Structures are given as structure tokens and as C-alpha cells.
């Protein structure tokens, strides 16, 4: 526990000055100073506040109060206590899952009434806190308001609405035929909840990809723990506060944190684990689950090409590629176009149309556009810059390439004829970079080999064949 005492001494001070000084000290310890020091945390005494940060702010505020011009003396003392953030370790994880399992074993989460009440609470939360959700998404990713609503909030509302509408049908036993050997018996299939479920979410759609599986877990009658991504801290903090406020905390909990907290959670025995993220972490999750024979759902990344032939409506095609690649979270989406395959002689025309339409979407300077999200973190920004600046790639940029490290923004970038062994073709790009691979006319079949790429089914490499009867 950190105890801070502020003492202000002066040779002289008037009644008015004393009042001002007290007000200043109160705001220092209990007011906007603490909130400003940790804007992504909704609690006043934020865990992100460090001793060093507090001392710097304290020094600044004390220098702002001038006492030397007064002729009497006074003393002002203010004390503030900051609770140190407790570490979530294996012991706490064990206790947490024990509490949730006790709640599940009581049978309350299995009832239709409990499920409907929790889904209704989620629906109410989405309606009442839409503004706060939008603001958190803007803090984490600079998502424009319209994009935040369309890609996250509205889809979460849709999932919740569907669950409420279909829940009785989903819970209804299914009649099945019996064999002659059991005549005259009857049989039915009854869907039972699995138990205590762990949801490990990701950062690119931090609200939707957290709430969507939670809605599913509640609908199925499970107790659930949500671990939001620490890379989207504003949304993570908001989820923790909203779920604590709106939902049944004896059965639904949020654990914030990074690798240590996730590791502590994965050491426990769960009844199901749902993970969204990279293939590298997916392996870790699956290995941890295998120790307890826990079933897992892994939503992992992958290469996602678009094949563009010359007989398409080029303007419509370009707009759809832009909407899916750059207008959707600046390419930070698993379903965005990862690269384009097209005819060699058609590539210049395609690039020109992409350039024209990009200007319609984001203006002449897309980095300054308010309609384009930023890169989520400095680490992701550095990774994408490294892909663009590789020797065999940097001289093949035909559109874009500008970047602003301070704003964490990269302009829509098109790269023509990237070598197969370039880094940008060896991993999911997950950003605003779009390679174009060209083919020669008349090849009836081509094979594109993407080495060292992990697909959603966890094979170490894949080859896909596309029949291309390109003719003049």
C-alpha cells in the first residue's frame, strides 16, 4: 500500500489563497489528476498509476501554487492511499474456477430463466453503454464511430437478439428414432451445458470478439470467464466494469491482464476453451488444454487471397476490396483481403482504379483521414514497417507506403509482384499492406505454395490449386 502525504508550508497566506491551495491539493489526490494519469481505466485509483508518475504530478502541482507574496503562515496536509494491484496467479485462478464450478453445480445457470435474464442484461448493457463502448474502441484503435457500430456493437446486438429469440428452440429436446431392439421405447437428445468455459479474446475487434462467445456460453447455460486482450486496454477495462455491473458475478467473471494472467488461467481444468488470435498462441492454448483433455475452439489467422480477372466490374471490385481491406479496421481483420492474384497485363489497370477509389474513401492524405483506424500498438506498427522495408519488397511499392509512427498510422499500401519468399508472403499480414501477385495469360493451372504458414486446422504448410483458364 502506497501512502502519500503532501505538506505545503508558507511564510504567508491569505484566506482566499488557503482555499485555493486546499482545492488544488484535493484535485491532486482525489480529482482529475488520477483519472488523467490513467485514461484507459474507469476507476479513479488506476492500477496503471506508478509511484514515479504520482511524484512527477505532485511536483508540478506544488510548483503551481505560489506562496511567497503573503505575510502569514499556514499548513495544508493531504493524504492519499493507493492500493497496489494484486497479481492474479495460479492460486487465485484455482479459487476463481472453484467458485464458478460451485455456482454451475448448483444448477442455476441451466435454467431458461437465468439464461434469459443474463442475455437481457447484455442487451440492456449494449443499449445503455453504446457511447462508452464507442469511446473505448476509439481509444484502442481510433475506430470511427460508424465503423465501431457496424463492425462490433450492432453485431453483438444481433447475436444477443438471436439468442433471446431462439433460446427456447435451442433448449428443446430433440426427438429421435429408436431401434427395433429397444421397442417400444422412445428417445430424445437433450443439450446440456459443458460447465465452466474460458474465453480468451483478441484485440482487433476487442468488444465483439469478447461478447459474442460470452453470449454463446450464457445461451448454452455455462459459467464463463472472459480474458480480454491487454493490447486493447480501454475496451478490456470497460468490459470488466460493465460485466461486473450488469451480469451475475457468481457465474460470469472477467480477468484482466497479460501473459502471466493468461498462463495462470490455462493451468486450470476447464470444460471448454475458446481462443481467438494468432496461430503461435493457438498452439500454446491447445497444448495447455491437452493436459486436461479440454475441448477447444481456435479461431486463428491465415492468408486470404482475392482472385481478380479482367471481366469483372472493376469499380465495384475495387470498392469491395477497399471496404474489406482498409475500411475495416485498417486491414487488422482475419477476413480482410491478404493479397490479390490477377493477370499480369491487367495489374496496372487494377492498381489505377484502386488508387482512384482509395482517394474517394480516405482523401489524398489517408494518414490524416478520420475514417481510417490506426495500428493497435507500436509493436504491430514495427512489424508491418519491417514487412514493407524488406529489401526485396521496398522497391516494389506502387501505391502508398507512407507511415506516421507517432499516430501509429500506415497509408493503404499496394506492392506489385512480391517474391514468394518475402516475409509479407510468409505470414498473415494483418494490416494495410496489399501485395498483388501476377500470372501470365494462358496458364491453365497454377499452384501457389505458401511455406511456413499455419492454417486454422494447424497444418504446417498448405498448397492451394486454382483452375484459371485465362484467355485473350
TrEMBL record:
Residues 89-438 form the Aldehyde dehydrogenase domain. SUPFAM superfamilies: ALDH-like. GO terms for cellular component: cytoplasm. The keyword Phosphoprotein does not apply. Pfam families: Aldedh. GO terms for biological process: aldehyde metabolic process. Keywords: Oxidoreductase. It comes from the Eukaryota. GO terms for molecular function: aldehyde dehydrogenase (NAD+) activity. Belongs to the aldehyde dehydrogenase family. This is Aldehyde dehydrogenase family 3 member I1, chloroplastic-like isoform X3.
